[in-house]
Amino acid sequence: MDTKKQFEIIKRNTEEIIPEEELLHKLTKSEKTNTPLRIKWGADPSAPNIHLGHTVILRKLREFQDLGHLVIFIIGDFTARIGDPSGKENARPPLSETEVKKNSTTYKEQVFKILDKQKTEVVYNSKWFQNMKLNDLMELLSFQSVSQTLQRNEFKERMKSGKDIRMIEFIYPLIQGYDSVVLKADIEIGATEQKFNLLMGRAIQKRYEQEPQVVITMPVLEGLDGKQKMSKSLGNYVGVSESPENIYGKIMSIPDELILRYFKLLTPLKSEEIKKIEDNLKKENPKAVKEKLASMIVENFYDKKYAEEAKDIFDAKHTPGKSLEERIKHIKPEVKKISSSQLKENKIWICQLLTTIEATESNSEARRLIEQGAVYIDNKKIDYKDEILLSKDSNTLIKVGKRKYYEVKLNN
Question: Strand, coil or helix: what is 379?
């Protein structure tokens, strides 16, 4: 593909390309010499799973691979053991070697749901940092002044408010930048919040007399709440290794105003297709468009069959008017039996029922969940004062929270 077309594909949905003219130069040189560019992306295996927020970058990396370039995936097994402050007030705690190895394995499994394994080189930064000598570290530290680092906006704010800045916060960007030197990276991709560290790679490569990498920053994806960035710690995330049913259900829960953004950042649709969806959102019920989005995302990680099954399960749980048999066909609730001796005139107080079937630990917890609107009986929201009629001729389906289902049977 010619340079201009490649540039258009690469630029789509990015926040910044620094600088654009250098990217064009690198693409032209790559085309003339028939040499793939080396695209760097690094991740510290700080948790066992990745979520859709990470896939915004992974999808861009896959575009580079489809254009014939090589992705170098750095697993920060060394940096994960020292913790990554990244300008935050609270540093991420360092991990043990065992935790890092375990998380690294799952990281590789999950990234290859998107990346092409044949066009990906996986490296570990402990390979060069484990045996780094003190004089080499001192040379690296000499490349950046304290005053330059303090220009970061986060640092300025913390200095004003009298909050601490740790020494590791000065060193970490240099370490990340040194990775680019070792790997001779042509391009490095990261989220907008990583911009300072990505630019550090350019600066350090110049000091080592290498051609500096181009920096590409990608948008930060909002989580299911539609407000804060997607994060496991905030609980507003969708994990790429979750079940098709969970992924589909979570996508269906996003605010309508996120639909278009999710299509742009999480699907391979082209600009003209996104425009059609935008037009349809003005005419159609957003739910129908959201169903298409949820199906596409499930299909990306599994296949069409799983996406169809996930939709069936979601519809079975949320479509009013379906019979109990139709709903439990997909839901597979936990079956609980109630003795008729526990009933008074075939009725039982709802809070007592939830506690009896061990859906809650106490009547007070049951009442709290009901008041929060988290309990449904046969697809109908209830009041904590309600008494439930149980019959030997039919079963009762109880939903507690988002994913717990109980089928209650009367045992005579």
Answer: coil
